[in-house]
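Final report, Chapter 2: Outcomes

The project's central promise was a pipeline that accepts a single protein chain and returns its three-dimensional structure in a standardized token representation, suitable for archiving and comparison. That pipeline is now operational. To close this chapter, we reproduce one record exactly as it appears in the project archive, with the input sequence first and the structure output second.
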Amino acid sequence: MHKYMAEAIAEASKGAGQTSPNPTVGAVIVHDGEIVGRGFHTWSNRKHAEVVAIEQAGEKSHGATLYVTLEPCSHTGRTGPCADAVIAAGISRVVAAMQDPNPVVAGRGFEKMRNAGITVEVDMDATSAAEQLNESFNHFMRTGLPLVTLKAALTLDGKIAAPDDNTGWITSERARAHVQMLRHRADSILTGIGTVLADDCLLTDRSGEPRSRPLLRIVVDSQLRIPLESQMVRSAKEDLVIATTSAAPDERKAILESRGIRVLVCDGPGGRTDFPSIVRWLAEEKYQSLMIEAGSKVNWSALESGVVDRIFFYYAAKILGGLQSLPVAGGAGRKRRVDAMLFRNLQVHSIAPDEFAVEAWLVK
């Protein structure tokens, strides 16, 4: 990867968690071998990375090269087209890490700049890194659905809970801090009512980093059993959704809604809450990513429903053993080895000194 593109990717990383529903983008402008402008996008700043860099570079933009992590946009949204700003600044060459997957752009920015006499190149060596910057955005643009990640903390033998006492943590503080960065990059997070009843969890982003919008919390609760005194309910500020079924009591629904909690009826097979309905609703609301942090049964239901795209499993150097300790995915499971769910693009992330995380994509 060219050193200036690496600088642009570093700029883009500064906006992580602060751009949704827009993509994360970074840009640098180079004139006579010197970086004269830098920029990254945040939702609150409105201005796109290219415009920030152009404003910083000023007159030195003329005849310069723009390195940018994503194709400059060609349409008017909250701001004007970045391709027009690049042309107006007199930039002579643009090197982008990838084409914008947004069908509204999808090469039109490149075409507009080329028609204006600008040399446009795609740095294929940087494409993979640029794709990772915007995994959720890219997935949403290509599929119309949020990227769904199933996260779990487990022992080496695949257990997430002991049969009696579950006080304490499976993984270390360092691993849990890594999880918070995943939450920070997510638009929404989901758990089951069993986890709420057992742990009285808050399910918030505790990274301490700024966000473009609050992390939307979702509880799968088919009978609306969530306690009104739970931390989840008491802390709700237009950021809590309860996904339930039509069998839930109407009076309970009315009480929750009176507290600013959205109750979403998603009827699925067997009287259970329907995961695909939840995911489609998130897409309609422009939430581009969902993290699932739940118990054994919910994990299996999510996997079996087909909504999960990726797993992120954090392993501690421990073994619980036994037949009563809960596995990461319970439920009915698959009855034959040949029917096992398959994964691809497996990556192992080391968490020193004795832990690791496995990231992999479900084969669909």
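Archive annotation: The radius of gyration is 23 Å.
This record, like all others produced under the grant, will remain available to the consortium after the project formally closes.
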